[in-house]
Amino acid sequence: MGFKCGIVGLPNVGKSTLFNALTQTAAAQAANYPFCTIEPNVGDVAVPDPRLETLAAIASSKEIIPTRLTFVDIAGLVRGASQGEGLGNQFLATIREVDAIVHVVRCFEDADVIHTMGSVNPVRDIEVVTTELVLADLDAVQKRIDKSQKKAKSGDKEAQAELTLLERLVPHLNSNKPANLLEAHEDEVRMLKFFQLLTAKPVIYACNVAEAELAVAEKSPFVQKVAEFVRAHHDAAYVPISARIEAELGDLTPEEEMAFLKDLGVSDSGVSSLIRETYALLGLLTYFTASEKEVRAWTIRKGWKAPQAAGVIHTDFERGFIKAEVVSYADLARLGSVAAAREAGKYRLEGKEYVFQDGDVALFRFNT
Questions:
Q1: Cα–Cα distance between 32 and 53 in angstroms, integer?
Q2: b/e map 281-316, b = 16+ CB within 10 Å
Q3: What percent of the chain clears pLDDT 70, i.e. is strictly above it?
Q4: What pTM does this model have?
Q5: Do residues 327 and 347 make contact, with C-beta atoms less than 8 angstroms apart?
Q6: 3-state secondary structure (DSSP) of residue 297
């Protein structure tokens, strides 16, 4: 079960530099000109989780296996992308395939890095990209309306419900509001997912700041404008990052990296926070399995019950699920050993209706 996050933004905002930093590869060309990324680059990224180290120490594990997210570096969108400008159709099709969007916004001044719109103005940049996504969605909605009208006239209840929702979407999108801000009840939310609208996807904004500004990023006028705008108009979160710092960290040892960041007055470049925030944005949580062989993080969706959680390890675990032996990470870490946690009565046997919680450490019993 893989989750994809698309990195979008205007050309030259630092998307490919961020992608390189995230995946610690040089697969994407981080060159200073528009459309340097033509084929989407794809890379797997480990989700940082300090709990793994603690569990490995408790279980004397030989190996640590973190959970992962897939990031897709999508070439820079430009004004007119919804009409096919600047390879727009290809870019929009790639965005349609991702589960969430990381929208990189340029919040740094640099005379050596051309801004394709002539000046640094992050709110304008957000609006340009949003408008292109909204226009693409309006086109898709209109086509769907044309298809649904015939079915709705014949008395098809499902088509009538769909048409009602689509007709509500048109004025909403026309006011340049993303589809994910439309007030909708549970059935409509399910329908929205089925429409695969670009602006229905969850978004997080990555404010790419200059190296010297990362420690005081929250005071940056650019970051402050983004924060105010995305809260008011997109109901979205933002994370300050420095793609350039992260790119420089790639060649350093962990010790050198810590010293470098300390000199800059920060504990990380913001990229770890961005990965964790994106994970949360997707509605994901982590549970663990721990043994002498390995401690491993597993990704599930919030609200999943024990058999579904077991199924991400192997489908046989879900089909033949009997019970799950579960202890919370907090209890196990506090008590320091499996024996102490058992003695304190913190291990429990859970059945098919148990809803897994973030940080659960589990052992499954199943029939094959």
A1: 39
A2: bbebbbbbbbeeeebbbbbbeeebbbbbbbbbeeee
A3: 88
A4: 0.84
A5: yes
A6: strand
SS3 call for 205: strand
Query: Which secondary structure element, helix H or strand E, spans residue 139, and what is its range?
Result: helix 122-153
- How far apart are the C-alpha atoms of 344 and 333, rounded to whole Å? 13
Please name the residues in contact with 30: beta carbons below 8 A apart, sequence gap of 6 or more: 16, 17, 20, 36, 247
Q: What would the two tokens of residue 351 be?
A: 């059945």
Beta strands 237-241 and 203-208 are parallel
Q: Band of the pLDDT at 83, cuts 50, 70, 90? A: low
CA distance 95 to 274: 19
- Give, for 283, the enclosing helix (H) or strand (E): none
The residues, ordered by sequence, that sit 6+ positions from 253 with a Cβ below 8 Å of its Cβ are none
Token pair 């390189």 in the structure block, residue: 20
Q: How far is the CA of 169 from the CAs of 100, 142, 147, 175, 247, in angstroms?
A: 20, 10, 15, 10, 41
Radius of gyration of the chain (CA): 23
DSSP reduced 3-state for 355? strand
The CA distance from 96 to 74, in Å, is: 11
For the chain, how long is the longest CA-to-CA vector?
Answer: 69
The alpha carbon dihedral of 46, 47, 53, 59 has a sign of negative
Distance CA 241, CA 82 (A): 28
CB 305 within 8 A of CB 352: yes
Q: Percent of the chain, pLDDT > 90?
A: 47
* Residue-level length of the chain: 368
The strand pair at 284-290 and 321-328 is best described as unpaired
Q: What is the pLDDT of residue 39?
A: 55
End-to-end alpha carbon distance in the chain: 21
Give CA–CA dist 337/143, Å, rounded.
Answer: 59
Written as six digits, the tokens of 316 are 């046989």
Q: Is 118 helix (H, G, I), strand (E, B) or coil?
A: coil
Q: Which two tokens stand for residue 28?
A: 């994407």
**Amino acid letter, 115:** H
Give the span between the Cα atoms of 68 and 4, in whole angstroms.
10
Structural tokens at position 221:
């006028």
